[in-house]
Amino acid sequence: MGVSVTTLSGCTYYKNYHKQIYNDTSEIIKQDDIYTYKDRVGETTKREANIEYGTFNGMETIWKFKSEGKGSITIDFNSKLNKGKFKCLLINPKNKVKNIFKQSEEGLINKSNLKINLEKGTYRLKVVGKGAGGEVTLKIKDSENVIITK
Q1: Would you give the end-to-end CA distance of the chain in angstroms?
Q2: Bridge partners of 48?
Q3: What is the pLDDT of residue 105?
Q4: Residue 19 phi/psi, 5° resolution?
Q5: CA 110, 111, 117 angle in degrees (round to 5)?
Q6: Per CATH, is 9-149 categorized as 2.60.120.380?
Q7: What is the pLDDT of residue 34?
Q8: Strand runs (DSSP E) across the chain, as ranges?
Q9: By C-alpha distance, which of 27, 78, 79 is closest to 57?
Q10: What is the distance between the alpha carbons of residues 120 and 127, in angstroms, rounded to a whole number?
Q11: Domain extents for the chain?
Q12: Of 66, 64, 107, which Cα lies nearest the Cα of 86?
């Protein structure tokens, strides 16, 4: 009688991999997302994201948008971090990364709005976390030359 044992070592690998992404720009600029949430509540629409999360590791693209020429977006954000590290980034068509906001201290509250001028091409807005817990609200407004997709 044979016995079969299966080990899921890959799960541990991906769990640790999610945590290592936070400071790795070469991973963050990739098109694909890789993330895990524990206790995620909320939704993302074409113009607004409201997310509460117990623990978040990895990176998630919130919006992609395309500028047909000289355009702009305004990002309003309100974020409260209870633990870990959390940041919101804009990746331009040349894979250059711009920090929208970054938090690495417990209880830090960030409220602001930011207008960003865009050149022609496709952009991505991502959130990145490492053991992060908290809540974030993002709102995006666009000019006439910008097309936003979820």
Answers
A1: 53
A2: 139
A3: 63
A4: -75, -25
A5: 110
A6: yes
A7: 92
A8: 34-38, 41-44, 48-67, 71-91, 97-103, 109-118, 121-142, 146-149
A9: 27
A10: 23
A11: 9-149
A12: 107
